[in-house]
Amino acid sequence: MQRYKSIISYDGSGFSGYQVQPKKRTVQSELEAVLAKMHKGEPIKVSASGRTDAGVHAKGQVIHFDSDLPISEDKWEIALNSLLPEDIAVLSVIKVDSSFHARFDAKGKEYHYVLQLSNKRDPFQRHFAYQYSYELNVEAMKEASLSLIGTHDFTSFCSARTDVEDRIRTIEKIDFLQEGEFLTLRFVGNGFLYNMVRILTGTLLEVGNGKRMPVEMAEILAKKDRRFAGKTAPAQGLYLWKVFY
Questions:
Q1: Catalytic site residue 87?
Q2: Are strands 2-10 and 57-67 parallel, antiparallel or unpaired?
Q3: Over the stretch 201-218, which tens digit does the pLDDT of each residue have?
Q4: Please, what is the angle between helix 138-145 and helix 216-223, to 10°?
Q5: Contacts of 35-38 spanning 24+ positions with Cβ under 8 A
Q6: Catalytic position from the list 53, 87, 97, 122
Q7: How does pLDDT run across 116-125, given as a tens digit for each residue?
Q8: Which domains, from first to last, does the chain contain?
Q9: What is the largest CA-CA distance in the chain?
């Protein structure tokens, strides 16, 4: 039995998230259905670096699976892409040691959140960016983001439904990348809690539109209470960009 590591990308708009759910279309269920077909009905478990919610996209999600099929690495990529739906793409498949685990071996992740700064509706971006039609003070957002860099308890910036007790994470970078009417917030850290990037983004947007002052970010962190942070930004602007090992 050989273990394989694969980098995949997907358009999350047609899925109810990554993880298998009863009677719902998910990325994991599509992957496992294709692998089962290749293995003549034998169920093949796929493990990922982490879950993504409904509507969230991935440019560089990492998965692993085990197989005893005598297929070369390049042929695995071709075979999987020939059977998977068009909204999932396998970018690479390599052999790894049997001890490798896509989730537990991950050292960090990079997420991008894409904003379309326009007051005109764009039907071609509705699934891939959050259209934001209000004026933004990006310099104020940058100032506020400095309070988030480093190791903190991010309880205020994760969903109240988060089921992990350890809420301490390290954010290494928050960059603001502007290209035309698109503003991308780039988050790099050792890990992110449930809805953390979307809540951070929603709160930074409230700084940008003047509803909050940049100094409030540190105060919100200190309170360790979700009720003090901003709204959760919509799913369609979020991309799991890269996983670090």
A1: no
A2: antiparallel
A3: 999 999 999 999 999 999
A4: 40
A5: 35/65, 35/67, 37/83, 38/67, 38/69, 38/79, 38/83
A6: 53
A7: 999 999 999 9
A8: 2-96 (3.30.70.580), 108-244 (3.30.70.660)
A9: 59
